[in-house]
Amino acid sequence: MSNTTMSSSDANVMIDLGLVNPDGLEVASELTSLACITVLALALGAKTYGEKLKSLNYGRVLVIMLYTLSWAFAATSIVVVSTNNNNLVSCTLGMLACDFFYAGSKIAIYAWLIERVHLVTAVKTTRLKTAQYKFHIILLCPYIIIFVLMLSFRHIYLEADGQCTIGLQDIASIPLLVYDFIFNLYLTWLFMKPLTNIGRNTRQDWKVTRLYKLARRTLVASVVCLSVSFINVLFVVLSHGHQRGLVCLTMCTVDVTVNVVTVHWVTTSGASSSGNNRTKTHNDEHMTADMTFDGDNHEKSMKFDIQMVQPHILDDDDDSITSVQASSTSKKPINHYYN
């Protein structure tokens, strides 16, 4: 009787708990996420250091929102990756992080690219009075449908060995892939068009040159965002939504980190080479066009047109205020000069 009890006790002890200790892939995923969190935190700190609430404008808010959502996703991802084995709740939270933080960062970067298109092509027009800007905002609406599909058609389950598996079903991932590719390709074309129409007799005005540099750098951002996002979503489609949770989360973390690094480069690149002799001209129409969605209420309070020495290094986020430094004699956007 005693031997039987001992045997039964031993049988209860020898239970296969599946994955308990982290494997090599999980350790690599956590190290990658930790590195990405560090980069995102540094970028967010650099962008918000010394920033005052009254100096924020629409363009800066979009950049800070992109950084914050990306950091939130990376931070959530590393916690989920370290706890999702044999844990359906953690597995579900990982999928929700993709649905909200990752998708939110994509909306933020789309809105930022739309803002850059407006700065390049509609210098002296308020946003909601520009047909092109309205059209681009409408182009964001299909993402609402895709978001609903992402919430409705997804895979969240544990394998027999306890591995967390998440992903989107084809009905959600394929529309996301097609939309992401077409929208990014269209925005890339908008920035490429004025650059490919440059002629030898182009007017050599400093303000127009700054427009050209802005379009060129944002073109790079569009290409990078298109490539990284397309590859990431393509893996989801090819796996039919059955990816190990830590693989999916790590790829998305790298995706948002590359996007943030690219945007950070675009909004700060070339600032140090301008020196302390840079001047900028403010115009009331340009200020009202880019500070608000409707500048009618601000036109009287911002009427000044002066030149002053710029004592500090400018970020290209300031273009949302200065409307890419267009002077009163440069009333046409970049694509008018380069046709």
From TrEMBL:
Name of the protein in question: G-protein coupled receptors family 2 profile 2 domain-containing protein
Protein's UniProt keywords contain Heme: no
Alphabetically ordered keywords of this record: Membrane, Transmembrane, Transmembrane helix
Region Disordered, annotated ranges: 320-339
Biased composition regions of type Polar residues, renumbered to the chain: 321-339
Record organism: Mucor circinelloides f. circinelloides (strain 1006PhL)
Keyword ATP-binding tagged: no
Transmembrane region(s): 31-49, 61-81, 93-114, 135-157, 177-198, 219-238
Taxonomic lineage of the native organism: Eukaryota, Fungi, Fungi incertae sedis, Mucoromycota, Mucoromycotina
